[in-house]
Amino acid sequence: MPLLTPTRALSGLAALLLLSLLWTLGFPHRYDTSALPIYSHDAPKEKPIGASLIPEPLVEDAGGEGHPPEEQEKGSSPSTADGGQKEDCKNVRGVDKVMVIVRTSKAQVGVALPTHLKTLLSCASNVRVFSDHSGKVDGFRVYDALDGITDETKSNHEEFLEYKKLQAIKNHRPDGEKAKALDKWKWLPMIYRTAVMAPGYHFYLFIEPDTIFSWTNLVQWLDRLDYRIPYYIGAPHTIDDKRFAQREPGVILSYGALRQYRTTYEERHVEEWESEVASSCCGDLVLATAMKHSRVEYYSSKGLTETDTPGKMEWTQKYWCMPVVSWHHLTFGENEAFADSQKEWTQKHGWETPYVHYNAFEQLIMPHLAETKDDWDNISSDTQLKALPDRRDENVGGLASAPTDSSTCQTACQNSDDCLQWKHREGECHLGKALRLGAKAPGKQKWTSGWILDRVNKVTGDWGKCERADWRFNQ
């Protein structure tokens, strides 16, 4: 009898059809899903796809060197550190996706964090502090960023003598300059340790103890970016034709960047990167090389992160409507003023309205401008009029000679169409068309400064009130 008969063939086909029907209607199975699109760093016209539809990063080595969730550093959260803000800033959408990493030293932060930093970290859900020693400060665990450097490297470089003292003598007070020489060695292992200890966050912000930033602007900015793209972001600086993210106002790495960096570090750190750190001036410069090796592109955040203080920076139309994300090296008074401005802003406008340069100028700068300000250097420097001995100066600024007092210097500025401000001391008159506040002058300098207020109001009025924030970066 043949194995395959028409009856058997029909029976087999019927069985296959029945199994197919049961599979479709009754058996559990998984459908293929399309990959989500990748967004560019340019701000989209419409809000990107909701965060709930974007997959969370894979949490690798969970537990590793980090603490379990209940033991992770959550910040000391002093009840009065943030001035008693109405809304708990830790609960603002996006804050829990950001890891804040503070790079410091025992010479900088021996027994306590700066007041402004404690205020900032009181909003952070996730914090790491890296230094040249391990321990605790203000309730935060301090990690030794240098313990992963090879013994051979430590033996071959003189700056590690100070490091050995820090490990051997508990109460050793490090020399500031010697401790500073260790800073460049911290960057690469600190970032690697962060990738191992806390791999599951969307963005990582690396700051200095004297960095200050706006939480509301930071989370709004990062919410516009796709964390899966390998971002290496910071204020631009150039050394030897190499452009990199300057450390002071903060360096931002995305989850995508950290993932690629971690793999490359494990392959290259000992054999290549440690020797490069030894011959380099700066850790943030070497970081640029490491990111390039990791195939992570640099994005400039000029205008969003500022390397100058509000007093020193030039206020221009180009960045007028850009949000202020961070500043660096503010004075105690500037830190207090900025913290107060942020508290007032979020209480009035909530956490989803950007705080732009225009707002910062109106709150922090304009109230301090005056027609005349004694013992003040406003950094006017575009034109310098100096009285030279045994010589009558040619006509400058509508005057027969260089101004001899503050009133004639002010007149010289008024007679120059594009002059916005001036400063004077004996024998010198400086005119400025760039708008700056400056700072109190040391006693010996004896500067008197002033602004042509009607021109300042006209110029800034023409720049507008910024109904829409300008989030563009990488310019």
Structural notes for this entry:
- The protein has 475 residues and is α+β, with helices and mostly antiparallel strands.
- It folds into 2 domains: 295 residues, Spore Coat Polysaccharide Biosynthesis Protein SpsA, Chain A; 95 residues, 3-Layer(bba) Sandwich (Hepatocyte Growth Factor), CATH 3.50.4.
- The chain is built from 13 helices and 19 strands.
- The strands form 5 sheets. An 8-stranded mixed sheet has the order 3-4-2-1-5-10-7-11. Strands 13-19-16-17-15 form a 5-stranded antiparallel sheet. It has a two-stranded antiparallel sheet with strand order 6-12.
- The longest helix has 25 residues.
- About 13% of the residues have low confidence.
Taken from the alpha-carbon principal axes, the silhouette is globular
Query: Strand count, sense and closure of the main sheet?
Result: 8 strands, mixed
Uncertain spans = 23-86
Count up the helices.
Answer: 13
Helical coverage, percent range: 25-40%
CATH architecture of the largest domain: Alpha-Beta Complex
* Structural domains: how many: 2
Terminal-residue CA separation? 82 Å
Strand content: 15-25%
Report Rg: 29 Å
Structure summary, number of beta strands: 19
By CATH, the topology of the largest domain is Spore Coat Polysaccharide Biosynthesis Protein SpsA, Chain A
Strand adjacency order, main sheet: 3-4-2-1-5-10-7-11
Write a brief structural summary.
With 475 residues, the protein is of the alpha+beta class. The chain has 13 helices and 19 strands.
